[in-house]
Write a structure and sequence with these properties.
Layout: H1 2-18, H2 20-30, H3 32-40, E1 50-54, H4 60-66, E2 77-78, H5 82-90, E3 96-100, H6 104-111, E4 116-120, H7 125-140, H8 163-194, H9 197-202, H10 207-237, H11 246-270, H12 274-290, H13 303-308, H14 313-327, H15 335-357
Parallel strand pairs: 1-2, 1-3
Antiparallel strand pairs: 3-4
Helix pairs in contact: 1-10, 3-8, 8-10, 8-11, 8-12, 8-14, 10-11, 11-12, 11-14, 11-15, 14-15
InterPro entries: ABC-2_transporter_component, ABC2_TM, ABC2_TM_bact-type, ABC_2_transport
Keywords: Cell membrane, Membrane, Transmembrane, Transmembrane helix, Transport
Organism: Hydrogenimonas cancrithermarum
Length: about 350
């Protein structure tokens, strides 16, 4: 049985490598796609266009404006009136507008505080909020405030707040999810499209062994992609630190690949062609991705969605992976994440196995 199983797995792997288009898609997804997500998605304020109207006639406004520089802000642009400034924001010429009133300099020197009007284009909500925080910190340095509390901030796990670290890792975990489903489903559906399904049914091999071998071959491909993405993109391009055990991460990825394969078996059972595979895969996986915490922290979701996220195996995979990479959680502290991935994965794989088994 082991020899037959190995032969079936080798057959599927050879078939995969003969499909140059599929190999190219997998390599792209585990390399360039993750790199683009890490470099292209920026949540920090950067290169923001600023305009201002200065009626104060003093030097304090120029001192504040001099603090707005690259890479966060472009050189501030003067405007003759508030109307012109508002029109520039409406036309998307600038994102931030500052208005220094005629009493700004006088109030700041006499009272230690003054009114500064600020206009923000909040269509890009994240960047505008970050810009607002930067501006508040700059202005507060010139205010005579008697603060009884001194704040000392210590950033943990990602000291420089590198967005690319989080985005690249989150994208890789999402890629594993989608490819695990699509590749597993494609193995069976291609048999239907190529007309070899009936021939496969007539082979004197236990159908359960065929299902297991076909799905296991795709798990191996996913794990190989994880190794490539981790070494080339995460470590090579982004220099992401790993404070825990890399072998714990690979083991967690192996179990999660079986979870995705289980969903792929279900998709294969209800799909007649590759177009339906793509449609059903996206329909099933996108809610799981959105509920996983890959894009929005779990604690920031609606309470109903927080409860629903408990059935997303990707949630446990993401939290476990981040704990390994950033927090350095030892293997014996990853029990809840392994339990979530293996528990939900076993249910999903068993259900998908039973579903595709009825087709044989």
């Amino acid at each position: 049985m082991i020899r037959t199983f190995s032969a079936l797995v080798a057959k599927e792997l050879i078939g995969f490598f003969r499909s140059w288009g599929l190999v190219a898609v997998v390599l792209y997804s585990f390399t360039l796609d993750i790199y683009i997500a890490g470099k292209g998605i920026e949540m920090q304020a950067k290169n923001i266009a600023v305009g201002y109207v200065d009626r104060s006639g003093g030097g304090m406004s120029r001192k504040i404006l001099s603090r707005l520089h690259m890479p966060e802000f472009q050189k501030p642009i003067p405007f003759p009136s508030q109307e012109a400034l508002s029109r520039a924001i409406f036309n998307r010429e600038i994102m931030v507008g500052l208005i220094f009133g005629s009493d700004f300099e006088k109030d700041l020197k006499k009272r230690g505080h003054a009114k500064l009007d600020l206009l923000l284009d909040s269509v890009a909500a994240t960047q505008s909020f970050q810009a607002l925080q930067y501006l508040q910190n700059i202005v507060l340095e010139y205010a005579d405030l008697q603060m009884p509390v001194v704040l000392k901030i210590h950033k943990l796990f990602n000291q420089n707040a590198e967005t690319a670290w989080f985005m690249a890792l989150a994208e890789m975990l999402s890629v594993i999810t989608l490819l695990g489903v699509i590749l597993t489903a494609a193995v069976f559906v291609r048999e239907k499209e190529n007309g070899t399904w009936d021939i496969m049914l007539l082979t004197p091999i236990d159908p359960k062994l065929i299902i297991l071998a076909k799905s296991f071959s795709q798990v191996l491909i996913i794990v190989a992609g994880v190794v490539i993405a981790t070494g080339i993109v995460l470590f090579g391009s982004f220099d992401i630190p790993i404070n825990g055990s890399i072998w714990s991460f690979f083991l967690l990825s192996f179990f999660y690949a079986f979870t995705s394969a289980g969903i792929g078996l279900f998709v294969a059972a209800i799909s007649k062609n590759m177009l339906q595979v793509a449609q059903f895969s996206i329909l099933i996986m996108m809610p799981l991705i959105f509920l996983s915490g890959a894009w929005t922290p779990i604690h920031a979701m609606d309470p109903v969605l927080q409860n629903l996220s408990l059935i997303s195996p990707l949630r446990y995979y993401i939290e476990g992976s981040e704990s390994i990479f950033f927090r350095g959680t030892p293997f014996d502290g990853l029990g809840s994440y392994f339990a979530g991935v293996i528990g939900l994965g076993s249910v999903l794989y068993f259900y998908g196995f039973q579903k595709i088994g009825k087709v044989f």
